[in-house]
Amino acid sequence: QINEAAAVVFSVPSYACQRRTTLQNHNTVLTEALSLLAENAELNEEDGRAIAFRRSEAVLKALPKAVTNLADLRGLPCLGEHSLKIIKASRKGCDVLKDGVSSEVETTRQSDRYKALKVLTGIFGVGAKTADRWIKMGISTLHQLQASGETLNQAQQAGLEHYEDLNQPVAKAEADAIGDVVQKVVLSVLPGALITLIGGFRRGKPTGHDVDFLITHPEEGREVGLLPKVASLLKSQGFLLYQKTTRNSYLESDDGPARLSSNMDRFERCFSIFKLEMNPGTTRSGTPRSSSRTESQSDDHSPQTPGGVHENGLDSRRRSWRAVRVDLVVSPISQFAFALLGWTGSKLFEREMRRWAGHEKAMSLSSHALYDTKQRRYLRAASEEEIFAHLGLEYIPPSERNA
Ligand code: CTP
Ligand code: MN
Ligand code: MN
Ligand code: MN
Fold first, then answer.
1. Is 75 left (phi over 0), alpha (psi -120 to 50) or beta?
2. Order of all β-strands in the sheet with 370-372
3. Burial category of 48 from C-beta neighbours within 10 Å (exposed 0-12, middle 13-18, buried 19 and up)
4. Which of 159, 163, 309, 323 has the smallest number of CB atoms closer than 10 Å to its CB?
5. What is d(CA 246, CA 254) in angstroms, rounded to the nearest whole number?
6. Is 92 part of the annotated catalytic residue set?
7. Which ligand is nearest to the CA of 346?
8. Cα(334)–Cα(381) distance, integer angstroms
């Protein structure tokens, strides 16, 4: 079964931050299978399993061509027993891995619990814990949630109200349109401010689940307290359907940046739902309105939004606007490079970079700073390139951080 002669030898370093991972993926069948199992583990808060699947997925994403032979996998890092089993199952009964199906993946995909977790965590403001609590109460659809009389917080209410829109991918053109609005408002509050598109769009992704912006100002300190003003201006101009602004808590934290939990940061930030006006005739995201979500599969053909129609009384297809999740983050210029690096992602790339820093360099990396444990000092950086250099890593540009 293992064809030694035809085996391709891939040389892949073990940390994702040592690799160049573009959006061109030659192993989508395998990576989608592993990604589903990772997502399922995340939704069930099985963090160790989730990370193991994410690492395997990322190794396959980094390969320069499709895996066609099990021997191709020899010597690859991060492929644990379970991931290998999935990969093998995915090719069972066929010459190539292409049309394989792993029964574990299919069983998971079709399980009631997975489907319910997906639907419920698809509500903005609902995480794995809340979804699990609801499922244990017998709530697994949006209708059941509404009928349950459960108290929803403001984020969840907004999430439910804009459920359909928020589960539609956001196109780059929509991100740019929002960027124009944000830029105008930010500059009116703080002239000279710098606004950068971050997250998946900075990595070159054509779509995203939200739009992320990082804001700073060349003069340290001028950025303090910016977001409450920006948020209230955006709100008064009718651009915000929901917002929650949190002030910077970095300086007052007593645990110090080096001890911040690995993926938390303390920047001033605003999590919002943006109201994006669309040109007449523009199809939203250019994607079909129906999706494969559980709610749409009910046989009464009712719309996915629980109320049936939007609060403005129009069918979503005839509205002139859509809701989009937007994250705004503000960093002082002295921390800008760290914030930029930390908020560009991908999430796995970031996690691997912090792991590399800790395990290989005895350093502690966060979105605020880089601390050298041996020298007992913070290492300054004015650019992402300098951070990679401090860490002894080859510079990887955003478009190659799609691990
Ligand atoms: N991030 C973070 N702290 C948060 C939320 C996000 O540091 N509380 C970071 C993530 O680690 C990631 C980046 O911000 O590097 C963007 O996060 P997110 O928007 O969730 O993901 P994207 O990569 O932008 O993917 P998508 O297109 O789905 O939005
Ligand atoms: Mn994003
Ligand atoms: Mn995401
Ligand atoms: Mn985000």
1. left
2. 363-365, 370-372, 377-378
3. exposed
4. 309
5. 18
6. yes
7. 1
8. 8
CA dist 56 to 6, 33, 79, 85, Å? Answer: 22, 11, 5, 12
Nearest CA to ligand 1 atom 2: 343
Token duo for residue 29: 């069948």
Let me know if 333 is exposed, middle or buried by CB neighbors in 10 A (0-12, 13-18, 19+).
middle
Provide the residue type at 360 as one letter: E
Q: Please name the residue that has the structure tokens 């394989």.
A: 100
- Ligand 1 pocket residues where CB is under 6 Å: 199-200, 205, 208-210, 212, 263, 265, 342-343, 345-347, 350, 367
pLDDT digits (tens, 9 = 90+) for 3-54: 566 678 888 999 999 999 999 999 999 999 999 999 999 999 999 999 999 9
pLDDT band at 100 (very low <50, low <70, confident <90, very high): low
Q: Residue 139 burial (CB < 10 Å; 0-12/13-18/19+)?
A: buried
Which ligand has the minimum distance to the alpha carbon of residue 347? 1
Nearest to 331 by CA among 210, 194, 200: 194
Answer whether the bond into residue 316 is a cis peptide, omega within 30°: no
Q: What is the ipTM of this complex?
A: 0.95
Residue nearest to ligand 1 atom 11, measured at CA: 347
Helix axis angle for 81-91 and 47-61, nearest 10°, is 50
* Helix pair angle (128-136, 28-43), 10° resolution: 70
In whole angstroms, what is the distance from residue 236 CA to residue 51 CA? 42
